[in-house]
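Checked the freezer inventory, then went back to the computational side. Two predictions to log before the end of the day. The first one is the construct we discussed on Monday; recording sequence and tokens without edits.
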Amino acid sequence: MAANKITAYVLIVVKGGCEYSVLEEVRKMKEVKESYITYGGWDIIAKIETDNISRLGYIVTKIRQFPGVERTETLICM
């Protein structure tokens, strides 16, 4: 990871039955390096790498707009 890169994990909760359609949309985003369906309190986890915090905010906002997404939590790595 380059020194100026930002890595974050976005935890996503979706409406029942929307997991795979949301995962498909998340995986289309170029900054998403990995993403998986999970079991437990969160339905999907996505690893994001980007160059700046503004771009990260844009990506998270786009994810929140996908049909079926109920909420997210973003964990920014240090």
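The second is the one RB wanted added to the comparison set:
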Amino acid sequence: MPATAAAGKEAPATRFAKDQLKAFIERIERLEEEKKATSDDIRDVYAEAKGTGFDTKALRTIVRLRKLDTDERREQQEVLDTYLHALGMAN
């Protein structure tokens, strides 16, 4: 039996699974495109900030720290201070 004839006689469950798989793939592809667009927008904002004279490394650190809750941020700072002190780098 030719492939096209076999495809036309697929079981409904098989056809549903293929359609569902295709829908998942297409959704993922759309989200990947949106993610790239968002990443490009973020890069543009950092470039704009840099052009205005801001230190983008510091901005990235602040953005990362703002994602943490207060206790996590405090704990990370204490660990960093401990390490800096152990290395003789603390004031």
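For RB: Residues 26 and 32 are 10 Å apart (CA to CA). Helices lie at 3-8, 12-52, 56-66, 70-86. Let me know if you want it refolded.
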